Amino acid sequence: MDHQAQGAAHPIRPFRIAIPQPDLDDLRERLTRTRWPDELPGVGWSYGVSLDYVREVADHWAGEFDWRAQEARLNAFPQFTTDIDGQRVHFLHIRSPEPAALPLLITHGWPGSVAEFTEIIGPLTDPRAHGGDPADAFHLVIPSLPGFGFSGPTREPGWGIRRIAAAWSELMRRLGYERYGTQGGDFGSLISPEVARVAPSGVIGVHVNALVTIPSGDPAQLEGLTPAEQTRLAGTQRWRRDLSGYAAIQGTRPQTLAYGLADSPTGQLAWNLDWFAAHGNKPDALDRDAVLTNVSIYWFTNTAGSADRLYKEAASVWTTPPKRSKIPTGVAVFHGDGAIRRLAEPHHTITHWSEFDAGGHFAAMEVPELLIGDVRAFFRTLR
After folding, report:
1. 335 is catalytic
2. 92, 187, 350, 369: most buried, per Cβ within 10 A?
3. Active site residue 139
4. What is the pLDDT of residues 10-41, one digit of tens each?
């Protein structure tokens, strides 16, 4: 597809990541000068990310971690930027060699980035080369959320879920895709269905993971839950009680938090690790270099504070249920996810529901093969 043919009014510009060497040197120097806090003895992770763990990962970031190798890996994928609704949008666009491939728009969440998806891009775009069926091929469009990484920072208020969904619809239109699917986890699980609500004539199906389902308050809604559903509900309740402080701060006072995140790479690292490390349950479930690639993107672009603003912009989604989408929707529930089908059905037309004992919140990084298989299975019925 010729991106230059989209017209001068909305140019699509090729993009390559090229972090200046002084920025890398500054990062390492800042990490070596970290002023460390104290820590109460014997509390583990109950007060937040443990001091020993942050020290260990920060040392790796300053020493063994090779940003240039990760930068080259990301630059192996075609990347572009364009301006939509006054905001720069960065995206990967990987065309499949299969001419009948289905376009698929994939959206990340917080504190992730487009780097989450490096393991699934090849199998999804070129299944033939990865032992799969070429009939399952996708053309992939993977944008950085407004305010995040190379799409950041945002320059004005208002970049909430629906505005992002409208921007994604416009992006797909500019790329010439009239019929496509959407996929996403975390904030992507909110934005991907919203794209279908914004552009129902274009979206043929929505696949999500890490979906959040919230009880309505009616006790009858929770009667007769299966043991697995009761476990997921208890996990959601624990998150609200013990682990949701980051969301409360980002949803109310993101600017106050931004000063520390912009000035201290160790502070940003710890803030992100609290989620990447699953709150201490399995701190090394994710590849350490993969985690640091995501963290580095926020640091080098100075968008940690800008990204946090999405929680304030999107605050209404937790109190205002969305209209029910009529677009076929598939849900993948990985280990630790809290989605309960009966709580999701009032808002989605669910035609596919999978539950896995493995994986986690960042399925594309933890269990890429399971996510790939579920995405293929869902869209196979819609092509």
Report:
1. no
2. 187
3. no
4. 899 999 999 999 999 999 999 999 999 999 99
